[in-house]
Fold this protein.
Amino acid sequence: MVRWMVVAAMAVTALGAGRASAEVIDRILAIVGGQVVTLSDAAVALVVGIADARGAADPVETAMNALIERRLVLAEVDRYALPEPAEATVDRKLADLCAGLAARVPEAETLARIGLDDERLREIARNDVRIAVYLEQRFGVVQPTDAEVQQYYRDHAALFSRDGRLLPFAEVQADARARLAAERRQGLIDAWIADLRRRADVNVLYVSRGKG
């Protein structure tokens, strides 16, 4: 069983126990600008792919941090009041989310018990689209020079090798340019999000395994 499934099971157990006693029990992991991030939120984030905990020592911490950053980014999206995305675009994103869920999710009852219903899935899809549009407008495409692409090709030869042979630069130039541009753009986004977090009111309550 993959690690995000363990986290989902933890949340389901807690929520199920709460319902049995007529009181919903869920663990608060962090508070971001007055909004709580809970264990069930973390389970949802891992299930739908908001957080990628592959190889993470603590999937809960990974999911929590991803949700903190997502809420900070969404606050910026809301602040700039971008037009709402077209429903057809949201539909396509929702279809992608559902396809991923079908490949790796436990039974539907489990999803419902962590609060992942059709309405919440659509909200996640809508926010994914809104974030993507905002980031595209803010950061656009970072185009490297030809010399920078050639240096990237030399420095990352393993990426452009097949069967132990380095492919000619002419054959992989477009791929190398796209990879370098994507890395630089992601670097700018990561730095921006880190700055948002430094300036934000974030109170982390969760103590990661091995830290206490």
In short: Confidence is low (pLDDT under 50) at residues 10-24.
